[in-house]
Specification:
It is a single chain. This protein is α/β, with parallel strands linked by helices and 467 residues long. The protein has 14 helices and 19 strands. Helix 5 links the parallel strand 11 and strand 12. It starts with a strand and ends in a 19-residue tail after the last strand.
Length: 467
């Protein structure tokens, strides 16, 4: 087995920071050493990490590669999307396989395996979107948990597409309580939102900014509260995805203060962007379409509550909800009708760097950066300690991260298969210099050395964050 030695970096995990050498044998970390312990170590490849951090590869627990939505498909394939993730220091994604209404979970899962297998540059796993809760699909949940697909997403939004009513949600939560599957929730009151959409369009309010105005903060808070109460009735843990609003964070905090196993995720777009972006008009009044996602961007004053939630652990994870659509030809489907703009933003390549900028800006500590971006997503979704940390026995998913490097984010230089950047022109301090996936160097000094098919499917244990 080939050996790699990473020397002289500041090893940063969620638990500690220490200057140490990291020895990799084959696909695994075999030792960390300081001083005399590491002096005798030899390896075929030696990487000098002096002046850099050595961090676990990022775990992005919320991506949508090749997702069908609104008559089109997310523009990143598993090949392009995982390559872009690697460039940004992320070495594992958890994507969403989709059950279609009337079809089985198995058909949906098999379709996603077919899309991903042989195409991924980094390791990947799947959650299952449960769009049709029936006796059959409830039974299938047990089988999927046994195969390492241990989380199931339901939607209180999108009537007629993914929507489940409270009775179906309760049944799925009860099943999850029995089989260990974690229920993930898109918490927005889609029935009420559809009324507001219809009223806005009837009043001639068709521009992208109205997408944010109809998807009201109160309807996120209401759905979050309802999801928590249903989970309480079912005796099940709950993970609320893409939390964007201060009042929704307050619902999670109140539940956690009662000792309930309720968890929340937010995304970089809610931490760094706002309704100001949705209101951008550009040359043709439609620029804001680039920023249409659900839950929507909120007024800037919500950002402080999200950062506070990340510091107090009322929010545990930052994922991207990476779901890119090109402005040209895809976002443009909603010209004249904001409700037809495909919902989603690109971001899988930017997450680690944006969160490092948050360290530089004093929002979070270095260890908290690793906790919310690597360790907790791995624990939440049953990948720890194989992923999310640097320790003997862990996969050698490692990033030599240069905290001094300065970059300007731009669609001209990013690697995602999308024609714009949500963070165009933003200067960030810090970037991945060398990225290893299971001991193989996939990014080094501005060169991509990886290959499609290196990434492997990762069966997951049940949620480890409860124990």
């Amino acid at each position: 087995m080939s050996r790699t030695l990473i020397k002289g970096g500041l090893v940063v995990t969620a638990a500690e920071e220490t200057v140490a050498d990291v020895l990799v044998e084959g696909e695994r970390v075999v030792a960390l050493g300081v001083g005399e312990v590491a002096e005798g170590w030899t390896a075929e490849r030696v990487i000098d990490a002096t002046g850099c951090y050595v961090i676990p590869g990022g775990v992005d627990a919320h991506t949508h590669m090749e997702l069908p939505f609104g008559g089109t498909f997310a523009s990143d394939t598993f090949e392009t999307g995982t390559r872009a993730a690697a460039w940004g220091g992320t070495t594992t994604i958890v994507d969403f396989a989709v059950q279609s209404v009337g079809a089985s979970l198995r058909e949906g899962l098999d379709a996603w395996h077919a899309k991903a297998q042989g195409n991924c540059a980094i390791d990947y796993a799947f959650h299952m979107i449960l769009a049709d809760v029936t006796e059959d699909s409830l039974k299938e949940m047990d089988l999927l948990v046994g195969e390492g697909v241990t989380s199931f997403k339901l939607f209180m939004a999108y009537p007629g597409v993914f929507y489940s009513d409270d009775g179906r949600i309760l049944r799925a939560m009860q099943r999850g309580a029995d089989n260990g599957g974690l229920i993930m929730m898109h918490a927005e009151n889609g029935i009420a939102i559809d009324v507001l959409v219809e009223q806005a369009l009837a009043a001639g309010k068709t521009a992208p900014r109205y997408h944010g105005e109809v998807r009201r903060e109160l309807l996120e808070a209401e759905a979050t509260h309802r999801a928590i109460k249903l989970a309480q009735v079912a005796g099940a843990p709950l993970y609320v995805v893409h939390v964007s609003a201060e009042s929704a964070v307050a619902e999670l905090a109140a539940a956690r203060d009662l000792g309930l196993p309720v968890f929340g995720e937010t995304c970089p777009q809610y931490l760094f962007l706002s309704t100001d972006n949705l209101a951008e008009e550009g040359a043709d009044g439609f620029e804001g379409a680039k920023y249409v996602c659900s839950t929507p961007l909120r007024p800037r004053e919500h950002q402080a509550a999200l950062w506070r939630g990340l510091r107090t652990n009322d929010l545990q994870v930052v994922s991207t909800d990476h779901c890119p659509f090109c402005f040209s030809g895809q976002k443009e489907l909603g010209r004249g009708d904001f409700s037809k703009i495909p919902n989603g933003l690109p971001g899988v390549e930017n997450r680690m760097d944006l969160l490092h900028q948050a360290v530089v800006d004093g929002h979070i500590t270095r260890r908290r950066w690793i906790e919310i971006a690597c360790a907790t997503p791995a624990r939440m979704f049953g990948l720890y300690p194989r992923k999310g940390t640097i320790a003997p026995g862990a996969d050698a998913d490692l990033v030599v991260y240069d905290p001094q490097a300065v970059q300007t984010v731009s669609a001209a230089t990013h690697h995602m298969n999308v024609d714009y950047s949500a963070y165009e022109g933003r200067r960030l301090t810090g970037r991945a210099r060398t990225v290893l996936s299971r001991g193989t160097v996939v990014i080094d000094g501005g060169a991509y050395l990886g290959r499609a098919g290196h990434g492997r499917f990762q069966p997951r244990a049940t949620c480890q964050y409860l124990h």
